[in-house]
Amino acid sequence: MRNNKIAGQQLSIVRSIVGAEYTDMDIVRALHLANNDVTAAINIIFDTPKLKLIERASVGTQRNSPVSHRSSSFDAGTGGGVVMASSKPTAAEDKNRSLGSEANVADSVSNSRDCFAEDVGAHSSSTASDWWFVGCGEMAGLSTSKGRSMNPGDQVLFNFPLKTGATTPSPGKGFGRGRQAAATCSEIVRFYTKETGEIGRIPNEWARCLLPLVRDKKVRIDGHCKYAPNKLSIMDTILLSVRVFINSSMFRKHNQVSLKDATNSTDESVFHPLPTLFRLLGLSPFKKAEFTPGDLYSKKRPFNEKENASLQATLLHIKSNRPSVNDDETDNEDSISETDLDKIVGVGSCSELEEMDPPCSLQCELRPYQKQALHWMIQLERGRPMDEAATTLHPCWEAYHLADERELVIYLNVFSGEATIEFPSTLQMARGGILADAMGLGKTIMTIALLLVHSGTGGSSSSQLMDQPLSESGEVNDTVQNSSNVSKKASKFSGFEKLRKQRNTLTSGGSLIICPMTLLGQWKAEIETHVQPGSLSLYVHYGQSRLKDAKTLVQSDVVITTYGIVASEFSIENAEDNGGLFSIRWFRVVLDEAHTIKSSKSQISMAVSALVADRRWCLTGTPIQNNLEDIYSLLRFLRIEPWGHWAWWNKLVQKPFEEGDERGLKLVQSILKPIMLRRTKHSMDQDGKPIIVLPPAEVRIIYCELTEAEKDFYEALFKRSKVKFDQFIEQGRVLHNYASILELLLRLRQCCDHPFLVMSRGDTQEYSDLNKLAKRFLKGSHNAPEGEAKVAPSRAYIQEVVEELRKGEQGECPICLEAFEDAVLTPCAHCLCRECLLASWRNSNSGLCPVCRKTISRQDLLTAPRESRFQMDIEKNWVESCKVTALLHELENLRSSSSKSIVFSQWTAFLDLLQIPFTRNNISFVRLDGTLNQQQREKVLKRFSEDSNILVLLMSLKAGGVGINLTAASNAFVMDPWWNPAVEEQAVMRIHRIGQTKNVAIKRFIVKGTVEERMEAVQARKQRMISGALTDQEVRTARIEELKMLFT
Amino acid sequence: MASSNLPRRIIKETQRLLSEPAPGISASPSEDNMRYFNVMILGPTQSPYEGGVFKLELFLPEEYPMAAPKVRFLTKIYHPNIDKLGRICLDILKDKWSPALQIRTVLLSIQALLSAPNPDDPLSENIAKHWKTSEAEAVETAKEWTRLYASGA
User: Fold this and answer.
1) What residues does the UBC core domain cover (chain B) (predicted)?
2) Host domain of residue A263
3) Does any CB of chain B come closer than 8 Å to the CB of residue A828?
4) Which residue of A has its CA nearest to B13?
């Protein structure tokens, strides 16, 4: 003891010699090292060249709170500030001096750059109210000093490293290891006393949670020595008693967020300092969370259920196997089959559910299973009775009494670590769920029924029930109270009226339905047809001229909009002020085709999650499309806690799942069970009958044979493609050239539809020898052409350039400055009028590219696509392919019955071609593809349904993907096979669904002896592969095998 | 009247030059001959020609755009690639001409030439030599000339 006390006198002696450049701390440390030998200390200082000089500039922000002078020594209940390095002698220091301690020691500690000290001395009555006393605790500090001593009751101060991982210059070898350690190991929190300097360090678990909190001035800590050995040696245990205060300012505006940020925890982390601190303090919640992370860990689940193992494989396969090909084909290709989906999410045994009759304002009959859905949805929307809900603690939150005499209560989210003083009631919980009935069961109509039964405005929750004398209605009415009542209760409960945030700045709105653009018209039409006029007001929020005034939007009971609109209004900053969808608190938000938001990082997913709503619904027939992760985005939107926190989802579901731990999948199933309803066409009702009986559908494959001319052309094309493919195989670069291979296959598949599709796009050189065969094919027609089949460039290449041109200004020839006429593409991807380019050359066969001066020759030029994508006059040269002939034959047979048909193809170019024979054979048709805007689509669909003369709808497979109801047709012709039968199935389901009264015939065309036939085999093989667990390597091999099959 | 058989490209270029002039460059066609342009280029900043206003004439030959325009400085200028008659040594005006270039791009190139004299490919031997032997002095002369002949007055 005698040697360890560094006297102020010694300090000032040293200072008088070394000068003012050195910090007090440096001097203190030097003295310490030198065992209080002044001369030695001076030598140490001078021998340490790198020793840091005093930073006169203040470290960090200075806190200039008015400081009142208090005589009472350690008044723990009051607040304090952090004394910063350059602060002038404050009352605090004065006091310290008056207390007879070495104020300089404290000062010096705070002077060192990489640390700051919590100075308990700087109390101030004016800030006291900002600090709430949380509680006391005890910790076992570890001595890092030797020979010093401290007595019970001694005040200890804490020294927190300022920055995590801050690299401070090495203080030099002469300077005690304590300091070096502090520089390298920034997580260590040390304590010291004013009298003796550093004593020891606090336990890691304390340091870990205190550090971020103290650093952000969220928490303050006082400490006293409770017990210490008489004379300290290294590693001795020192018992400290600490008192922790929390800064009330962190509960003001947006505080929860900042608190969370303060933890330095990324989204991935599940460590949260505040809950940990509370635990260390021995605080126990007076109201425990019903649902804690611990529950999740402890729930052991059985392993090795065979069926699920294969599912696991399915999804894993899909995940690991996504080749980086940029076309949609692969996306769809990898989507999971309906059967697998059913296994993952389960199919509801709907027989247990009660039914609920729809109000009479719904002008159509609901089937029993639809009434069940209505009951289920109402139940979920109701949740607990409002009254109870408002006063029931959200199961993810815990409530703590603080030790503060003001009787404060703090709520902690055990999953996210957020803290609040507002009562987190179950009102914030999800009300709603996922209606995941399979396609064709009428999710739209069930939702419309819900809109009619239960509507109101957001926030007010004064829901009006339609005048239905339902047993339900009375109950439902009970569930709704007016909000002021609720908030009063809530605030009374929490006791924080003063600080309660007023959130009700948003305008209260009705129900918002968000759907893909293609379904906008259908929603509107269905509501208009099925709802008694006057019972629901409707507004379609779409288009440039849409009204953004919130007042207008809230006037309608139902607002329909598209995902695109939501995303665009979301991206506008301060959307709240700008009006629009985000300035409204919706009574209910419904996402139709909710898998649209499956990528959680997409703008659209974030946008819909940001909508404020009291009730939330997802409608989707495919809650998982490619990956288990798809579910996460839905749960986040629905506010199914804690699964909306990526960290928890990832830790407990995603990761285990990916690692093959059964529990991941099981957990998903248990999460989804209460909030998801899924039935399929095969679901049975109580009596064991199918819930839905549709007219039978017959699926038949029509095999076509290539004509001689077609065959020659196909064979030539095939040989050419195979040579290329074999090269890739030889080089072992199949998967690297996946896109090129798909392109080769694409050509072959198109050739099966009609050789014209390929002739219009073969690149000059590669396909030049095909010209003869092309000619031969053309000659097979009656009006054999004189002219040669013009050759055209690679379409993919052109598209790339054309796309580029489109992005820039309107295309203009750089020579004539006019719109292109007979545009050509140079190999260097510049686009010019053919004539302008040739005129710029002296020599007629080659010259420089006028744009980049690259030498090019005439035959390198590619002809850019024109209005018509065919380089020949397809009308004049028209020839039927075998498939076209077969289709025409089928359609002729149907003509007399006047039953309507849909003709699906993946290629709109093929639809172009089909229009020729249709016109010639007087088959009246309409056409639906991706180029149509919403209004045009609606018009086409309406015409097809209503005009009895129109027998055929030409439709691109992709355009017909979602939601469209085509029950007017009873025949579907699938012209070309798709990689994934599920996509075909989905399109075909448009006709085989509720509302279909006739027998349905589905005919798929396959050309024998071609790639199409082998695709069938691959599809079958794929099914097998999906059901077996494969490793990454096996999957790769399998994929190559698959491709090899196609090229046999 | 000359405009009646003027190629559309020239009309378009002229319109664009007038409606969206390039910074530091003005070019307007002569009243009586639409192929003849009066051009003014401001000396680029941080060049010896800063503060100067240089007059040029530009003529579009019959073959334009398949042949390069003819351009000449009217204002006296001290520059290694411009001779005392105002003729300019610039590749794009000669063998590197491309019909994808335009009046605007030509004038911008000339402006760039003022910023970056190239004494290794000289038109005016004397000036180039001056530039190579004593650049600072040559720059001073160029500044002097700019003050004397191109001060706008």
Assistant:
1) 5-151
2) 65-280
3) no
4) A817
